[in-house]
């Protein structure tokens, strides 16, 4: 492992910074043979990986990298204000406006503050929100709370439980809607998790992220956040959704069903897509246009049931030519309770895996099949390969997304006693994760420029 | 494992069939209390999984399932003609037409014959081709050869070597182009494999599949095959490509670069998509329209170099919340030489995997990073997570598809002695697998119907 501390610096640079008592976010003055500059110390990991540079943000807003050697002088000139975790702040309260809770878990949507105070401190305090989107107070009475501060690649199933409980607490406090700010990497997984763990929702819950941090001119943070607040404050829906840009311009914000959405581009603002289904809403603040009927309507009388537990010992395996049966054997021997296969085409695997899959089922694992095609559905009755897997007891999961299938199986295995019941429930749709109608109309795949 | 023989039948049904000496493809007469029907015996796995039914194809073309009990009479009335493997047949030879070799490996494109002779016998003899597309003889002098008969989920890296050698043999025989008929499940992997293993190609090679078998009215087999033959017979290109429907109608056939193509729908005819790049050609037989310039032009003087070997001990692992480090440890302990991570977003993994990834690199595995987003490219300099993985020695693979990265690493590890050289070559583009220009224009993601 690397010797990084939380600032991302190490070696001689870290030593200089420690001597100067300078932490990320502090103003520092750096004097070398040829330069004398002052600016905010940035975390190194955010910018690049040259181990002998300090990166500071100048007053102009630009970042500068400065090579440090043992003769460089580094002084801390102004201590950054540190924010505490778990602050709850209500911005204001106006009559006639809906009340919306915003729970922050971290990620790029919170990265304005990352730039100022470093990767360790959370963001999205009431003040940050106000700075980013001054008109938010005109749209809703906001309750803002920081519940964790993580890039979403480090959100684990146990965190889904924490987020579930935090959302439930807000719902029980009587708000009109809840927004969860979250990194985009695993936003789809968390959306699926909340879709299952928050049963019998009375109000809408929207997860929102951003692909560009809010201090960049091209940021999508403000519009995504505004759209999410408008949606959960006003729309007649009670589902878990993901609210993100639908195009690269700042026009169409889309709300996707939480069990149906996937990050399909690593960097574009319109990275999130509804798969095998239509988005639920287009939001052009303050307009909200319904694109597809919701499964559940807002009903404040409906009694929330919270089922926050997830079984972590469930594996997702994407198959490929040459995949070794030892992977599956390892999954069995390490105590996994379930396995979601991301097979090829209509739901096939190389026959080299058959005996290991049979062993997994004999050992009591629940094994489900999805397709690595992403679009379309599995149909294991068409070819011999599929039929043989069905006969072993592999469960065909229709058009469930592989990621959603994984989360659903983690959830069912933590909440149902009998594995027969789990198997049965995997084939039934609870919150829109399976659609029985033909998928043909809903495939609007990548159109190339011809 | 199930007790299936190659016909897919078992139990009392199989016994009846054996007593009647009836094999799939034979005409049989079945007499029950209420029926007396004659038709072609179909393999069960193709249709459904009810163990007490025989399925026969009637003269009308429809399939019928008949429940069998011990009183049912089954007689074989006509033996199907069995074709031998490895037949090479030249259909005809006309002056002025290009000569094209068609090598069949199996899959749905060969399933007309599956219906007649069962899952074990191969297809695409010269006669079958002629039956399917009578006008083929007007477009090219065809050399047809069956090299294996597999559903593509059972094509392994060792089969890529066989297909490579078979294609090389045709090229050296002086044909103008080669078409490889292949199942669609792993067509993209095989296309990537041939892109690397056939170095310095003098002529084009097109892989072609079909999503619907050729005896269905909606079949795409004939048009895909015609398009592929036209392309490799005539176009001024010398690359490995995949030729499939670009839309659900029978208008646009597209040729995709072999390292850039992915099956994105489980059942639609337009399932294959170029990712992060444009298709190379649109084929509207006999018209061929260039959409993007080829990397290599046809040149009969160019000397083919065949590098058919692939290292099977390379793993592909898609990350997800809760993934266990023991997966990576198992990959190390089972003697793998390489690992392609399909990480989240710009190329991240949960930090729970870091120490196992470090171990893999310390043990000498080559570890590369791709993105499970599918579209876009990895950029591991933006966030701490990415920087830490880079510092461990994880290789960022730009916009290489995960599937192509896996095949490339299998190929490099079998053909290069030094792992430093392998690491360097993984970051360089050989046959269009990495494109350095911005990917933004090339993302034309799923557009929802709004």
Would you write up a description of this structure?
2 copies of one chain form a homodimer. With 450 residues, chain A is an alpha/beta fold. Chain A has 3 domains: 11-78, SH3 type barrels, CATH 2.30.30.520; 88-306, L-asparaginase, N-terminal domain (Rossmann fold, 3-Layer(aba) Sandwich); 314-426, Rossmann fold. In chain A, 26% of the residues lie in helices and 22% in strands. Chain A has 12 helices and 22 strands. In chain A, the strands form 5 sheets. A 9-stranded mixed beta sheet of chain A has the order 6-8-7-9-11-12-13-16-17, sandwiched between helices. A 5-stranded antiparallel beta sheet of chain A has the order 4-3-2-1-5, covered by helices on one side. A 4-stranded parallel beta sheet of chain A has the order 19-20-21-22, with helices on both faces. The longest helix of chain A is centred in the middle third of the chain and has 16 residues, at 157-172. Mean pLDDT of chain A is 85; it is low at 1-5, 45-49, 83-87, 113-122, 438-442 and 445-450. At the A-B interface, α5, β19, α8, α9 and α10 of A face α4, β19, α7, α8 and α9 of B.
């Amino acid at each position: 492992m690397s010797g990084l501390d939380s600032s991302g610096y190490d070696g001689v640079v870290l030593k200089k910074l420690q001597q100067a008592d300078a932490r990320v976010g502090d103003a520092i003055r750096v004097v070398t043979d040829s330069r004398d500059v002052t600016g905010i110390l940035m975390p190194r990991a955010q910018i690049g990986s040259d181990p002998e540079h300090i990166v500071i943000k100048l007053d102009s807003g630009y970042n500068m990298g400065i090579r440090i050697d043992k003769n460089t002088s580094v002084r801390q000139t102004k201590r950054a204000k540190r924010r505490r975790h778990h602050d709850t702040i209500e911005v204001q309260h106006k009559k006639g406006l809906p009340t919306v809770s915003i729970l922050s878990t971290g990620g790029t949507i919170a990265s304005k503050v990352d730039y100022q105070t470093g990767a360790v401190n959370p963001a999205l305090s009431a003040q940050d929100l106000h700075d980013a989107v001054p008109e938010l107070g005109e749209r809703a009475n906001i309750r803002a709370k920081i519940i964790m501060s993580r890039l979403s690649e480090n959100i684990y199933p146990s965190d889904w439980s924490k987020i579930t409980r935090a959302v439930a607490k807000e719902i029980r406090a009587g708000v009109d809607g809840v927004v969860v700010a979250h990194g985009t990497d695993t936003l789809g997984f968390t959306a699926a998790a909340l879709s299952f763990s928050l049963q019998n929702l009375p109000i809408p819950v929207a997860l929102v992220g951003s692909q560009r941090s809010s201090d960049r001119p091209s940021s999508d943070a403000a519009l995504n956040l505004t759209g999410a607040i408008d949606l959960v404050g006003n729309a007649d829906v009670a589902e878990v959704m993901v609210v993100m840009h639908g195009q690269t311009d700042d026009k169409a914000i889309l709300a996707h069903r939480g069990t149906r959405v996937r990050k399909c581009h690593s960097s574009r603002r319109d990275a999130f897509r509804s798969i095998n289904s239509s988005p639920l809403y287009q939001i052009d603040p303050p307009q909200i246009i319904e694109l597809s009927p919701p499964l559940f309507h807002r009903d404040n009388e409906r009694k929330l049931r919270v089922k926050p537990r997830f079984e972590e010992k469930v594996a997702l395996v994407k198959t490929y030519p040459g995949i070794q049966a030892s992977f599956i054997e390892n999954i069995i021997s390490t105590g996994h309770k379930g396995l979601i296969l991301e097979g090829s085409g209509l739901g096939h695997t190389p026959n080299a895996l058959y005996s290991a899959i049979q062993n997994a089922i004999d050992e009591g694992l629940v094994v489900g099949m999805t397709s690595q095609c992403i679009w379309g559905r599995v149909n294991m009755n068409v070819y011999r390969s599929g039929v043989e897997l069905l006969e072993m007891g592999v469960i065909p999961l229709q058009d469930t997304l592989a990621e959603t299938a994984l989360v659903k199986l983690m959830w069912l295995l933590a909440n149902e006693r009998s594995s027969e019941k789990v198997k049965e429930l995997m084939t039934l749709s609870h919150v829109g994760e399976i659609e029985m109608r033909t998928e043909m109309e809903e495939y609007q795949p990548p159109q190339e420029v011809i």
